[in-house]
Amino acid sequence: MQPDRAIYTVLFAGFSADAAALRLQTSRAKVLVTADRQLSARQARPIAGERAASPCQRRQGWEAVVVVDRTGSAPVLQAGESVSELVAAQSDDCPCVPLEANAESFLIFTSGTESKPKA
C-alpha cells in the first residue's frame, strides 16, 4: 500500500470482539473506524468499548482508533479519537489522487463458517 491511499474493509456489526479482531489482524489494519454503539431493533449495545477492552484489540498495532458518535451519546474518548474533531480539523482542499484501474481499494473476507476466514 502506498502512503497516500488506504485499503478498507467492512466488518459485520454482529461479529464478536474476537471474530472482528481476527479479521483485523489478518488485514494488518492500522486504523479502526467504529461507531459508539450499534443500533438494532432489539437494543443498542456498545461496540467501541467492548472491542477496545478486548486483549485482541491491543495486539493489533493500530495507529489510531476513530469513533463516530452515531447515537449522540457523547462517549468519553481520548484526544484524536472523535471523527467529528478529525473532520473539523481537516482542510477543505482535498485533491483527488489518480490511481491505476486495478489498484487495491477494498478487502473482502470469506464468511469463515467452515474454517478460518480468508481475505
Which sequence of SSEs, written as H and E, runs from N to C? HEEEHHEH
Uncertain segments of ≥5 residues (pLDDT<50)? 41-49, 51-59
Secondary-structure-based class equals alpha+beta
Strand order of the largest sheet: 1-4
- How many helices? The count is 4
Query: Main sheet?
Result: 2 strands, parallel
Q: Helicity, in percent?
A: 10-25%
Oligomer: single chain
Question: How far is the N terminus from the C terminus?
Answer: 16 Å
Rg: 16 Å
Question: Could you explain the architecture of this structure?
Answer:
The radius of gyration is 16 Å and the shape is flat. The chain contains 4 helices and 4 strands. It has helices at residues 17-27, 48-53, 55-58, 83-88, and strands at residues 31-35, 37-38, 45-46, 64-68. The strands form 2 sheets. A two-stranded parallel ribbon has the order 1-4. With 119 residues, the protein is of the alpha+beta class.
